[in-house]
Amino acid sequence: MKAADLPPHAPVARDAEYNFAYLDERTKRMIRRALLKAVAIPGYQVPFGSREMPLPYGWGTGGIQVTAAIIGPADVLKVIDQGADDTVNAVNIRRFFQRTAGVATTERTVEASIIQTRHRIPETPLEAGQIIVYQVPQPEPLQRLEPREAQSRRMHALAEYGLMHVKLYEDVARYGHIATTYDYPVMVNGRFLMAPSPIPKFDNPKMNMNPALQLFGAGREKRLYAVPPYTTVESIAFEDHPFEVQRWGSACALCGAQASFLDEVITDDQGGRMFVCSDTDYCRERRDAGD
Amino acid sequence: MTEPAHVPGPILRVTGIAKRFGNRIAVDKVSFELYAGEVLAVVGESGSGKTTLLECVSARQMPDAGRVEFLTRHEGVVDVYGLAESARRLLARTDWGYVHQNAIEGLRMNVSAGANVGERLMALGERHYGRIRDTAAHWLSRVEMDAARMDDSPKTFSGGMRQRLQIARNLVTQPRLIFMDEPTSGLDVSVQARLLDLLRSLTRQLSLAAVVVTHDLAVARLLAHRMMVMKDGCVVETGLTDQVLDDPQHPYTQLLVSSVLHP
Question: Complex ipTM, two decimals?
Fold first, then answer.
């Protein structure tokens, strides 16, 4: 039976034709070296020799390479895409590692040792010993403002980040508030400006002093960066326009959660809609617990 | 010209600046001094090394030889090229200003006029939106721009307005020295006259020292106290503006002065 014919939750057998976790050992070692450097300099973008992966750029090639470099046979992997475990990207990446590494997978945040994510941080607080791997499309927070890479690298080197506030100034001047809602720039360890990948700014506070190790991989841009455990991650803002996260007027229609990131789901063509948790695991755990 | 009593020496001392591009000598050992509140014009034809000299002095381009010393507000005289790069860039965006010939090079065209003026403040760590905005509005009014256009993009501005915006953007940190590369070229004469009038009053009120590169002798006559005539990378004549223009000594200066049309 081909992998494509399987139902989403069926486990895939390990394919021994592939090296463990797809990449060859030398490539994994190269990525680990880059990761060590990234952990040593929190928020600094480390160049690495990104490999061609069996899926297109933009689908998580950076995150997959990081996961492949750090995963071991005893690891338990969770993959989420926009908070959900059962969307195309998440299902395929989970299957990829089942097939090439034969590792156990889970949908429960608490059981996972490695969580690869696109666009969300789980609602359940991460613990020491866990590793979260972010898929990053655009690692350079200054790129939209300063197209010359030589210039933006120099700005990082000299910590000249006034330009980022120019962007926020434009937001406030135009909309009356800071209109950036995702990929909201952060200052890591008081030194490097970092793009937190396209997570909603709702998740930004979770990065601050997080006990888990946070790794970021950008495959097309060939950059890795990291936030070690218990590192300060500060969302930049103005004194008179402080950083604020999104709020909803309602609770999750399924589990009643009031403090989670909600997705708006349109239920019919009569204007019917409901708000549900974007983190499917968190929502199910709450319903199972009978809250 | 009023010179503050507590400033003893020159604010800028340039010694033996040289720059070559391959075998071509662009600037050949140029030296000059500039005092607080003084405006120096550098004139000469295209290709005489005026702009290269300006860029070498303002730390935008590394000279091959020579020293640039600047009298800072707090640390006394510093050798600009002896500073660490971060300190040099900080100096260039606080105590110095640079007005480009083409306003597009000196502005961020994709953000509003207010953000353009506020950028230097934010780079220096100002994190209060209201204060940034008030300061930007103040400097826009100082360069005679309508505060109502503060949130407009510089793309919608005329050439003269862009040039004035560029000046406001430089003045917001209250620099003491400003470099100008052909500030009025490409503008029609009435706009030029207004801009020159503005520059004259600003340099006087703020006691700004300035180095103005221009090929237009009328600009030099109006703005500058002293002038320096350059040819093939060398200074051929220096002196008080009126003296050089009314009684040119060097044959090249004589040619330059006699080439100007008097309508």
Answer: 0.84
